[in-house]
Amino acid sequence: MKKLKRIIIVLMILALVAAGGVAWLYLSLGSVIKAGIEKFGPEITQTSITVESVEVWPLTGSGTIRNLVIGNPEGYNTDHALVLPEVRFRLDVASLKADTIVIEEIYIDSPTLTYEVGFGNSNLTTIQKNIESFSLESEDKPEKFVKNTNIKSVVLKNGKIALSAKIMLGRTVTVDLPPMGLVNINTDSPVKAGAKVLGAVLHTAIGAVDGSE
User: Fold this and answer.
1) pLDDT by residue for the chain (213 residues), tens digit each?
2) pLDDT tens digits, residue range 111-153?
3) pTM higher than 0.90 for the full model?
4) Is 133 helix (H, G, I), strand (E, B) or coil?
5) Which phi and psi angles does 73 have, rounded to 5°?
6) Beta strands 148-157 and 100-109: pairing type?
7) Residue 109 and residue 88 in contact, taking contact as beta carbons nearer than 8 Å
8) DSSP 8-state code for residue 16
9) Residue 139: its pLDDT value, please?
10) Number of Cβ within a 10 Å radius of residue 201
11) Long-range CB pairs of 61-65, under 8 A, 24+ apart, other chains included
């Protein structure tokens, strides 16, 4: 009888430890996402990427990314290529334990892109080419983080494009960025999903400046 009680106690302790581990994972999601963006983002863009903070509410799956800043490739005078002051998202928390991570929606509010023209190129087209190269290379290399990912909806609104040229020495002229919407992005990793979203944002900005989508 005593032996049975000891077994039950041990099992209860193990269950509590496991539950605590799951709770810790959910509560630390913001830190995990922030670290992931700052680690894998530069591999996609070949530029610096910083994030001020990421908050996630585990019970609802709602979250906010604040002040995500993508730096410029070498050789450009402006401070950065893209600033996202606030990105709101809603994650299906239960999907973290399933075969596919499901992100119900991403809302990008008031982004600012800097379009700096160089000699026959621009900072945004350079980053866009880096994203395309990453996507091609990742097809032939095993992913560091493989997990099917489905983003159901992406909306971008209230954006601005700051136009500049090397001869302007960092000065800019601002125009509106058209709204953007995407649905059903499906990839075999969150990193590739992020690359697709960023590529679409750059495509919208470049198309707006060039006068064609």
Assistant:
1) 555 444 444 444 444 334 444 444 445 788 989 999 999 999 999 999 999 999 999 888 999 999 999 999 998 888 999 999 999 999 998 898 899 999 999 999 999 999 998 777 899 999 999 999 998 877 665 555 578 999 999 999 999 999 887 666 667 788 899 999 999 999 999 999 999 999 999 999 999 887 644
2) 999 999 877 789 999 999 999 999 887 766 555 557 899 999 9
3) no
4) helix
5) -65, 165
6) parallel
7) yes
8) H
9) 66
10) 24
11) 61/90, 61/91, 61/92, 61/93, 61/104, 62/88, 62/89, 62/90, 62/91, 63/29, 63/30, 63/33, 63/88, 63/89, 63/90, 63/91, 64/88, 64/89, 65/33, 65/34, 65/37, 65/89
Structure-token pair, residue 22: 């799951």
Q: Which residue range is the domain that position 176 belongs to?
A: 2-210
Which residues have CB under 8 Å from 105's CB, separation 6+?
Answer: 89, 90, 152, 153, 154, 155
Question: How many domains is the chain partitioned into structurally?
Answer: 1
List the end-to-end C-alpha distance of the chain, in Å, as a whole number. 75
